[in-house]
Amino acid sequence: MKYIVVLAFSSIMLSQSLNAQEIESNDSIVELNSVTISPIQQSPERMPETKGNVIFSGKKNEVIKLNAINANLTTNNAREVFSRIPGVTIWENEGSGIQINVGVRGLSPNRSWELNTRQNGYDISSDVFGYPEAYYNPPLEAVESLELIRGGASLQFGPQFGGMLNYVLKRETKKKFSFETQNTTGSYNLMSSYNAIGGKIGKFSYYAYNHSRSADGWRENSEYKVRNSHVFLEYAFTEKTKISAEYTNMDYQMQQAGGLTDEQFNNNPRQSLRNRNWFGTPWNVFSLNFDTKINENLSSNTKLFGLIGERNSVGFTATPNNVDAINPLTNDYANRRVDRDFYENFGLENRNLYKYKLGKIENNLAFGFRLYKANTIRQQDGRGTTGSDFDLTTENGFPRDLNFYTENVALFAENQFKLTEKFSVTPGLRYEYINSIGNGRFGISSGNDVPFEEKEISRSKPLFGLGMEYKLGSTNIYANITQAYRPVLFSDITPPAVTDQIDPNLKDASGFNADLGYRGTFKNYLNFDFSLFYLSYNNRIGGVRQFVNNDPTQGTFLYRTNLGETINKGIEGFVNLNVTKLLEVENKFGNIDLFATISFIDSRYTDFKIYSASGTAPNVVITESNLKGNRVENAPRYIHNFGLGWNKNNFSSTLQYRMSGKIFTDANNTVAPSANGVTGLLDKYHVLDLSTEYKFLKNYNLRAGINNLTDEMYATRRAGGYPGPGILPGEGRTFFLSIGAKF
């Protein structure tokens, strides 16, 4: 009987050894060798000690196999998919799933920018060091697995505080030709179709898919259309050497419903006061990959990759307490604002793994390098049309027209020293050279250009780390500490207003991640991972108010500088219990799994200076204070997920419950909501999701689900700008029904 995995949260490996037996027959003895039996692994799994020329020993990591869980993959429901990973914060701007916004350990989820986001091992964000926002993620129906390596992975992937998130796409390696289709309908005119072909013919392999999806959206003015296309080709010269190429293209058009004030949200969270706001990001990602095994001890991988993309928006961007209405004097709407970014980046990354012995124990050395170059053209504040469609036309171009360049060279090495077969120590080093240049026109004042004087920041940054792992049967104790780093971003050196100023000595953010945990399995029914973490984030960048020319009578300006340090610390835990295997009744009742992921996060400022102005000129008074002890914005005190899953024969179902604590949305820890909805405490929320699947006639499946089963009214974020200032509601109750086949 086929075993279908429904719920699990880390790799389960059951090893059963049959003792050598002696059989006496006709005065002869036959000795049977020991046999190891490993059942199907549950999801999420954990990385082995080494994989893909990368060392994972001692690092906290999770691997989610999407074909082993029940979730709404059609709309990329991150709440369901990431529920089996503790400590993941999710921003839910709208229900399209076009952009996945996740953060870990109290870090900002904004377009996953505290993570090094990758697809099949190469970068997919706008500019890794200049503007690391991930406007693109693949459709989850095309994804085989998600790999999340926490901050301790920074030495081999990059210096990001959050670590690395990698989307691994599906491939077909067994058949000459395969065809897969998944077609979905759902609430608010959701229509989706995913179609893929793939196969392997001799030394040649191929895979291609197209995913198209559209819906009107749960909120008013939130319709969207998105298309994702991908092609992969591979040729294996020998069993040890192969070359592959892949290309991904995405394009979408999304209406942005905008934010609400708290009063508007409480009256009707589905309402929208913006029907002229649109957003789109044409995206092209490509990669050339070369794998070879030079000898039994040395293997190498080289990736040449690139990205060409855009970020386009047009709309009325005022706060929600400002009405977008027809002006009776002009008998027309106000002109909309148009902003456009153009991205081009290219990189080369090489990874190698060398296996060698010290005494009788095999050790591993991973090393490589990275070359990267990016260019961003930013055009903002364009005077757009008074219309309502997705029209990027402007009058007289763009007042703000900037160019940003990033160059990066990195060298990295980690060595896993196995002191015994059970205990290993993995020290590592990464060297980063980053050069950032910005120039162009900042704006136009009185008909004259306001130049953005060229700024160049060069830095050389060595990073160090140490990981340890001790095996105890099918469990292990792991620990690591790794330095992290976040260079000054383009947005940090670009003030939002002409009057604002930038600290010429602006420093990059730096800090470290530390983990101590215990994980593993017990027999074939218990799977767990519990750990403590500590994250130090120094030199956070923000704005403080100062006097113009040191004269209170001349007013104040915003001075953007390094403000202080935050400490994020807490507990992360996961446990999965297969009840029917524990009671040894799975053959009769199928598999019943209970899982829980828990995280308690204490994220606070230890030093954060602010300045406030009061009074009117010439009697303006500036007060300095320190927010030491305040909670970091957008960091909930807790995030818990509880799930119940059942599968028997060809049917599987998962019911899961997510709890997330209150969050402050500004560093001042403002409780009362502002009149425009931009600041204020966001309440805790609880959301229930149900997803099911039935497989029939060998090749077919029927999937269905209800998200937000109890129709909870909640919000996960407030915005000060895009996708619309104000409080952004999470989606209410929706359903989906899907039928698919694979041949």
UniProtKB/TrEMBL annotation:
It comes from the Bacteria. Residues 63-160 form the TonB-dependent receptor plug domain. Its main location: membrane. Residues 1-20 form the signal peptide. CDD domains: ligand_gated_channel. The keyword Transport applies. InterPro entries: Beta-barrel_TonB, Beta-barrel_TonB_sf, Plug_dom, Plug_dom_sf, TonB-dep_rcpt-like, TonB_rcpt_CS. Residues 244-709 form the TonB-dependent receptor-like beta-barrel domain. PANTHER family: FE(3+) DICITRATE TRANSPORT PROTEIN FECA, IRON III DICITRATE TRANSPORT PROTEIN FECA. This is TonB-dependent receptor.
